[in-house]
Amino acid sequence: MATKLVQLPLIAYHVCLSVPRIPNSLRTQRRVPSANPWSKYTRFKHHPFVCGPICTIKVENQGMGLLEEDEDTIPRTKAKLYQAVEGINRGVFGVSSAKTAEIKGLVEQLEFQNPTENPAFNLEKVNGCWKVIYSTITILGSKRTKLGLRDFITLGDFFQQISVDEGKAVNVIEFSALGLNLMKGQLTIEATFDIASASRVNINYSSSSITPEQLMNVFRKNYELLLSIFNPDGWLEITYVDDTMRIGRDDKGNIFILERSADIFVN
């Protein structure tokens, strides 16, 4: 809830109040105004020309933070968003509808206050390595069972390396196979991109691979299913980006939240 001071419209009072007639004998006794005629009236509420009372009303913050204008609004909203996505494994195995609504509301507040105008024309902001901290991509039910993601395979971090100079993006999804002496591996998906509008880029799938070979053998039977989940082919709208956080929405209706990472991965 945001609080605002509202001066009731003056015109309504002008029709109700009359100006007293000043006797001629007093007309020559005018006081010379000070250099700052407002200096003795604090916040205008005691000034004789302010006819209406000042009242305080509370206006509900609806949806996208339209009334929040404090300088620290973005850092506070980002802190709330980090707290909201904590402990939900990036949402990949689903979250409650209440949690989804909470995250979506915070995302919309940040999107409304995006500090980077025309982000697709300022791609230096997105260059480098990012880690996915939340997305609406989910692996549920039979898909999760087929991919062995209930007990046998554990998902690790999701990274995205963007090279603006090459027009190239590399997505890396890390895995651990518990039945193979805790072997670790990764799915790597390479794609190219080009600017479609001031905020949108087109993404074209190039290639993919799973390393090491033992992990590829685990996924081979359901490789197309795995690729269909993480394939970035389509378009991506960059709806928010600053020095540490990026938010995007794709043509499939998914939301992605990423934080800048210092990690460097090797393909």
TrEMBL record:
<dbReference type="GO" id="GO:0009536">
    <property type="term" value="C:plastid"/>
</dbReference>
<protein>
    <recommendedName>
        <fullName>Plastid lipid-associated protein/fibrillin conserved domain-containing protein</fullName>
    </recommendedName>
</protein>
<keyword id="KW-0809">Transit peptide</keyword>
<dbReference type="Pfam" id="PF04755">
    <property type="entry name" value="PAP_fibrillin"/>
</dbReference>
<feature type="domain" description="Plastid lipid-associated protein/fibrillin conserved">
    <location>
        <begin position="77"/>
        <end position="258"/>
    </location>
</feature>
<dbReference type="InterPro" id="IPR006843">
    <property type="entry name" value="PAP/fibrillin_dom"/>
</dbReference>
<keyword id="KW-0934">Plastid</keyword>
<dbReference type="InterPro" id="IPR039633">
    <property type="entry name" value="PAP"/>
</dbReference>
